[in-house]
Design a protein that fits this description.
Blueprint: H1 3-27, H2 43-68, H3 78-100, H4 108-125
Helix pairs in contact: 1-2, 1-3, 3-4
């Protein structure tokens, strides 16, 4: 694997991992009501727990952006990095919501929205 391909791979991997932590930090606490240990925790404690989880997002997101950004020798422009991150965020969120929130459903309008996101990625990356 050449350096360019490695930077693409590691950027996407780090963005995926960082978004996994962020999704857990932002939405994971909504499942705390199902866990006996957390039912009586005040909101401030929940915020601090989420903040601690989000720290790992930053520890992965910042290196991903540095590794992937053209100005640092990466393969992506700033806009491409942002669009890539948003698409990864939505994919991670959908997987998370289906695994942990069984009441959520996948509808046709979601599929259409994802198709538009794929088109957005196509046009953002088109030279």
């Amino acid at each position: 694997m050449n350096v360019y391909t490695m930077r693409v791979f590691y950027t996407i991997l780090l963005l995926t991992l960082s978004n996994t932590f962020m999704t857990i930090a932002w939405y994971g606490h909504l499942k705390f009501k199902d866990m006996k240990w957390s039912q009586s925790l005040p909101l401030l404690v929940i915020v601090l727990i989420s903040w601690g989880i989000a720290l790992f997002e930053y520890l992965l997101q910042v290196p991903a952006n540095r590794l992937g950004y053209k100005e640092y020798g990466g393969p992506f422009s700033l806009v491409q990095l942002k669009v890539l991150q948003e698409v990864i965020t939505l994919v991670v969120f959908m997987i998370f919501s289906f695994l942990f929130f069984k009441t959520e459903t996948f509808k046709v309008n979601h599929l259409i929205g994802f198709a538009f996101l794929v088109l957005a990625v196509y046009f953002i990356f088109k030279k």
